[in-house]
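Components:
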Amino acid sequence: MAKSNDARAHDDHRPDVRKYMLVFGALLVLTCVTVVISKFHLPRPQAITLGLLVAVVKAGLVAAVFMHLWGEQKLVHKVLYVVAFFAAILILPLLDLRMVVSRITERMPVADQHPDEGAAPEAKPEAAPAPAPASAPAPKPAKKRAKSAPKNG
Amino acid sequence: MSHDSHGHGGHHELSFARKYVFSVDHKVIGLQYMITSMIFLLFGFGLMLLMRWQLAFPGQAIPFIGRLFPADLAPNGVMSGEFYNTLGAMHGTIMVFLGVVPLAVGAYGNYIMPLQIGAPDMAFPRLNMMSYWVFLPGGLLMLGSFLMPGGAAQSGWTSYPPLSIINPGQTVWILAMVLLITSSLLGAINFIVTTINLRAPGMTLDRLPVFCWAQFVTAILLLLAFPPLEAAAILQLMDRVAHTSFYMPKDLIILGTHYAGSGGGQPLLWQHLFWFLAHPEVYVLVLPPMGIVSEIIANNTRKPLHGYKTMVVSMLFLGVMSFLVWAHHMFLSGMSPALGNFFLVTTMIISVPSVAILTCLIFSLKGASIRYNVPMLFALAFLPLFGIGGLTGLPLGLTVTDIYLHDTYYVIGHFHFVVVTGSIIALLGGTYYWFPKWFGRRMNDKLGLIHFWGSVICMCGIFLPMFPMGLAGASRRLYDPTAQMHNMGVQGLNVVSTYFAYGLALFQLPYIWNFFHSMFRGEKSVENPWQATTLEWACPSPPPHGNFEKTPRVYRGPYEYSVPGRKTDYWPQSDPA
Amino acid sequence: MNNYGWGLPVAASTYAGQIDFGIWLIHIAMFAIFILWGIFFTYLLIRYRRRDGVPAEREDHGETPAKIAVPDAASKFPFAQLLYKHSSELKSLIPDILVMAFEVGLIVFYAFPVWGRIKMSTPDPKDAVVVEVTAEQFGWNIRYPGPDGKFSPLKPELVHFNNPLGLDRTDPDAADDIVVANELHMPVDTKVLIKLRSQDVIHDFFVPEFRIKQDAMPGMEIPMWVEPNRIGHYELACAQLCGFGHSLMRGDVYVESREDFDKWLKSRAAATPAPPKPSKPSEDF
Amino acid sequence: MTTITMDNADTHSGITNAKLGVWLFLASEVMLFATLFTTYIVLRMGATSWPWGWDALNVPLATLNTAILISSSVTIVMAYAKAYDKNVGGFRFWMLMTLLLSFGFLVVKAFEYGHEFALGIGPSTSVFYAVYFTMTGLHGIHIIGGIIVNSALLYMSYCQEDWEHPLFLGRVEGAGLYWHFVDIVWIFLFPALYLL
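Structure:
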């Protein structure tokens, strides 16, 4: 392809309106799906993985179709792989906190299961008159959440 | 490589403001960065001189200017604890973020890199101008924080919470940092796009001079390492202003009163995010000077660099690894010891590329015909002194010996040997080397020699005593070292360092005079005074707007010196013969 | 206090010797490396200075031929071709590989085991003297559990001038706790488990003679241990910037025989005020 | 903008300067939001109590907001399509729709914040609200930045000289890339704060 700087000539991202509308519909549906799933108040690990999965699919759709990443040049993909690698390094501070939890004095209560299953949620008075009912102590977080940084942003 | 939309030579004459103040020419912006960062370096240097007085003679009034300071900072001339901490924090911040980075990346990168790749200007000239005009207000805001009630930032250039949340002066520090970070981000984008897209025809990646490789890796580090600090600084700003508790644990009792924060914060989180930036930052400080030293050594040994490919691969590897070593600053900070072992291994891995680069530079001297002019003296002094800096990093990088040496004067000696006798010596050498290109005149060699020998001896005089002090256990950032008995044994070394520090101040005067005097009345110089081969010497000095009359075509590698069978012992890159 | 000179102060704890060994080993290696490179460097500077008529010799690794004659002995190695192509460059890295081997040896045989022993393992509280050191802006509050050997949780709302730790004396565990400011007593040749806490900002527990250093992180209780093996009076200093009084924040560490230590504990226990009736702090003023 | 004729074809990467610059800027933005997400996860793991999204925040309103932002993503892609076909009327219509939708997003956000402030909930209430206000606030600032850029493009489509400029399509694509990135950040932010 002729390498000129005029964006149209060599960037043959010929816009395909039908594909855009298709993706638009898919995104709206996925949003409703993720909201409905969260309404069930699943136990922590399932909720996190499902929510994350839907978010990654939606982000993938936006990036691949709207941002024309699908047919993009290799250099842009390389830039994104480098960024993904360095963003993934930011996991190490989480690793540190997991290992140091035993030292933190103000620790999470040991209640491991979900608040609705049995553990009497002692109402923890919110500092301000919170509108929602006093929040029950969230149970001990499950396995470390996968890095949810927008990988292909 | 065509030219700006308003054409070559015949462009309409710009007004004084557009030509010199709000210029979009990478050369004018480079000089603006240079003059500004040198003034900031001098200011940070002055802060250090005050600190050295307090360290050597604690409790005694500062001579001559002691009375000038307001009463709360230095009651009747004697420096107070807060004032000492302010000087320490601002010395670190100004020297790193306002001095060396803008000089190494903003000044040299902006001026020399486009010339070395044969480009007419940077990829985004207006963005380049914007990056300077965001940097300057950031710098002035940082200096302005001295005038704030309560004084400037006082919790070290690392501003560890919770101290930095309850100490005065940190808010303006954060705002200035956000401006500086934005300026560096804009600069980094500009550098990467220029290096990728605007190279002259024939200038493939393996013909790129080492200085351009160093600036390219530095730009990637700036682009990817600065945003985490910006996010962490915004969180700290929220902690200070909106009383959130990102870094404030529960039930803190500060000066007897129960801190009314909601708790739940993690002070370690700031340390992780800060050092996630700060370690790539120190490689940003050292990579461009390594590039400058390689250029000067290649030119003055009259032979190609030994192991060009090894050096380039080492720089890229250094760039990647610099993101994986940050927690060797945190071995003793409450971080889990198991992670200490991981970062010990990555720290030892990262010492390999830096040693490889130094080895290649030293082996470049083998079989050379070395010319001992002033830039070469600076470049040669860089090698052993940076070697000392690197070697003293070994006991600090090893977890066990770091238990004793962490946060002592050993650390201060280590990083000053890397930054002062490493980066700043190389940057000063760079001014002697490229001065003819900037102003078409040469700097006076006699003054250069005085400046060189005086600076190197005084620098070693300041920083060598810090190693025995560190071994004796003298901690850093101590307002009054004599308050602790285990420092009494080495207090004499503090006095030695202070005298050498004042000596170093004196030896900068010939340099300042030489720099500004030669700008107008220096001895006129030819277009290529050092008979160098890289592209920046293939255009008139000082280069006109648009740099090259005809776009240069590159035919060979950057350092083709002493090619057998040629008349002259240098073969410029753009020479078709 | 004659144990402070230019070099390392006297070693007064069991693992101080190991840390000193590491420091001296690395410094000897550093001097060796620096001097060897220095000699080679000055030789090069003198031997290859510019002389008229003597041009620089290029190593002419410019366009190395594609196919390098690899000696058949080495040809079975995977990267033989590549290594031989860049042999001149790689030969120059041999000194670095030696230093790297030394470092790997240092890490595996010295750093991992000693770091594991000092920082990653803490002695069993039953057979060690347990002390809780709470750092605050510009002072160290040192708490001994007293005969019952139990610490009571601290209540921040009870903190006021003469109760810096917020100790609730009515709590049976806390009744016999001994709280001392800036004075740490240790029996010689017994393991001491120190629980390090901080009330406000980050401080750092540093006793040069014990070669012990650990940041006191607010919101964390960090266990560390030391086993003093030399009777004497040493200095406890803060090694992390904690405000304007950072350098004035010092304490004294007394290592004495077991009997003296117990005698001192009893004298302090006698001096501790009897558990007051649960008065609100505001009533005292 | 410099119109660079292609005589360094062998050393040019084939990607226009503007697009490469925008992607690098998005790279630094990814690092910024990755740090914020790391902070969110670290603080959540260390927190003593973390309210459930449905309890603490108004999820239906946020779902509406997500729908608004996704549709603004579509309208800006339609604007790019119209600019690609040099149809200035279509471009102006779709770009106006994008601006209206982004204003709508800010209005809904303002309602949400106002409701919370009225109840006395602020960033200092608890770590959850601190993370919520900081992340959505920073995201809101990025939305305002996007609005400024998009309205500048809309204005430029009215003056002939800019609309004919060969690089105008590149600018629209750059603004579109940035806007899609802001949308992707919200796609991750919405479940993280509201639903889990």
